[in-house]
Amino acid sequence: MTEYSQRDFITAALMKLGAAFLFATMAVQVRYLGDKFPVGQVIFFRAIFAFVPILIFYAVLGELAKSWQTERFFSHVQRGTLSIASSFCYFGALARLPIVDVTAISFVTPLIVVVLAAVFLKEVVHMYRWTAVIIGFSGVIVMLVPYMDISKHAAMSAALGAGLTLAICNAVFSAIAVIQVRRLTRTETTSSIVIYFSMFIALGGLVTLPLGWIWPTFSWVSPTPFELAALIGAGIAGGAAHIITTSSHHYAPASFLVSFDYSSMIWGFLLGYLFFGEIPAALVAVGAVIVAGAGLFVVWRERQLGLKRPESEQEIAAPRG
């Protein structure tokens, strides 16, 4: 059993908070690019430039060569396909909804995982966790109430409806991907799962090239240099956040770290307001608290029941976009 010091816990918490901030900055850049570039192009740049910190990290650890070794390539393909679908939904939702709303809805993923684990992995789920799942889904309904005011959103109801649908689909696809990761961690290394994930996301974005990408220019007269910086920055921020999250698990157990994931909602609110003037409706905030509370209860309950998850699963199960 690993022994952690108080300093280790503080280090891990700061790293996790930093990773949440980087994921939020990635979301800001994706939101900025949402109405300027095709989703597939943004996904490609996000994935390909995420390789920069990821490859450096595993090269320093001396694990880069074996990162490509796998016993279950087809399982990586399945997981990659799910992650491509999740990424398209997540990025599409960010282009249509406030950052904090998309972030809040994404945290229903752990609750969906409970349902899928019971169905597909035959995990025993008792009344307490089922109750948390029901309460969590009620929180999602609360978050959706403000969007049901057709008179208020009549002019943009189609875009909002698409955004909400994409945000919910992202949570579902991410949950299915988590189930696939639980199977992969039985034989695959963390580095191989991360590398193949990034590779398939990049390929998923690349296949949209014939549909028409917009190529940034280098003219300082136009704002396109900022757009190019955002395309690159989203990838580097996402890749760096991924690495910091992975590293934080060396200093504290996943059961301690998972609660810091919910700081993404705070960063999402602050950055969304700062850059886009987005203010979440009161019911969205209430629903987000309900979903977060239900998700944290599920984690606490699993810890009480002694349901141990592989650390590698916690690190790479459902990265954002």
Written description of the protein model:
- By secondary structure, this protein is mostly helical.
- It has one domain.
- It is 73% helix and 0% strand.
- It contains 14 helices and no strands.
- Helix 1 (6-33) runs parallel beside helix 12.
- The radius of gyration is 19 Å and the shape is globular.
- The two termini are 33 Å apart.
What structural class should be given to the helix and strand makeup?
mainly alpha
Report the average pLDDT across residues: 84
Distance between the termini: 33 Å
Helix share, percent: over 70%
Biggest beta sheet attributes: none
The tally of domains stands at: 1
String of helices and strands: HHHHHHHHHHHHHH
Number of helices: 14
Shape: globular
**Low-confidence stretches at least 5 residues in length (pLDDT < 50)?**
311-318
Counted beta strands: 0
DSSP strand content: under 5%
Q: What would you report as the Rg, rounded to the nearest angstrom?
A: 19 Å
What's the topology here?
Blueprint: H1 6-33, H2 39-61, H3 73-94, H4 99-106, H5 109-120, H6 127-144, H7 150-153, H8 157-184, H9 190-206, H10 224-248, H11 254-257, H12 263-276, H13 282-305, H14 311-316
Helix pairs in contact: 1-10, 1-12, 2-3, 2-9, 2-10, 3-8, 3-9, 4-12, 5-6, 5-8, 6-13
